Amino acid sequence: MTQDPRLCGLCPKLCRFACPVAGGTADEGATPTAMLQAAEDARAGRIPWSEAAEALEKCTGCEACRAPCEFEQDVPSLLYTARAEAFAEGIAADGAQDLHSVHLEHGNPFGKDLHAALRAEAREDCDFDRKGRVLLWPGCRMLAERPEEAAAAMDLFREIGADHMSLPARSEVPCCGAPLQVVGDARGLEVAAASLQQYFNRQRTWVTPSSRCLLTVRNGYQAIEQDIRAEVLHVAEYMLFFKEALGDRGKAVMDGFEARDEPVPSIVVHDACGLHRRVGAGGAVYEVVDALTGVRPDSLDGYPDRTGCCGAGDFHDLRRPAAAVEVGDHSAKHRTLQAGTWIVTGDSDCVEALRRTHPDCRVEDVLGFAIAWSPEAPAAS
Fold this sequence. Notes:
It is a single chain. The chain is an alpha/beta fold. The protein has 20 helices and eight strands. Helix content is 50%, strand content 7%. The model has no long low-confidence stretch (mean pLDDT 91).
């Protein structure tokens, strides 16, 4: 279906009720109607791009607006295009400019030496095997916030029989370029994709726990004609190739709870916006949890189509940190969870935001859950 930003600009906010940013911040300027009308006004010369750029930042990329939309508008992609137009004029919102500056200096939006962080945790003898045919791409957020998880994942994969997996071996590749796409630096994304395309295409399979990285490599690279020939998968999809081994691991865990006479903690799945709506791979998370526990988990927000935006999507927490907190709090305020409940999110980019809003629960992405759900698994965090 053809995407037309004018449809959003002329719409009387029929998706307003679904937008977590508009709901969480009480900002009518955060609706697709307002954001894309600002872009049209800038294109027509009615307002300067500097004014439009601030309006274009008010989105987490959750696509909650798409479900009630009669035209199924892809609002995040329309906003990427508009931001790129503003960026080409040398204009970006303050938060986007800050993120971009940090990325240019450090190669990632977190301002850290991510490869050093990974090397400090991983095993040089086998985790960086250049002959591996499956590349585990942790994503810059995991390396910035939880590099130990990326290293522990290698032990997990070896245990379940994924012997051909390796971590990024090149020191110059901490980031796929997703932050550049989000802020509108189209040329920067092209450079990032061109530098990684050959490396990625040497792999048989490319795997990531980050929906933002997955979207960029699967869709963003293709849009700029930097196609990746490798099979591109979310980590939950890949883990299902080893479903039987996961079941054996899960049985040992459940036997351990029984032997210790401990209750099995409640487990719910956070239906991450990027993975469930934009990628369409959320069902794999439920299957992985089911394989490890023997029970299909409930959804944190009642049903997967609803999804609860944590506020961190599309690096919204780095571009607009105060607004991201409001969005996360708005999504969490109606949830009632027993202390010690495990929340398993399909997106590694959501973990820290969910930990902030649910301090009495244990929050892991699906990969972290598989690592932590060991025979010695604790009943609570």
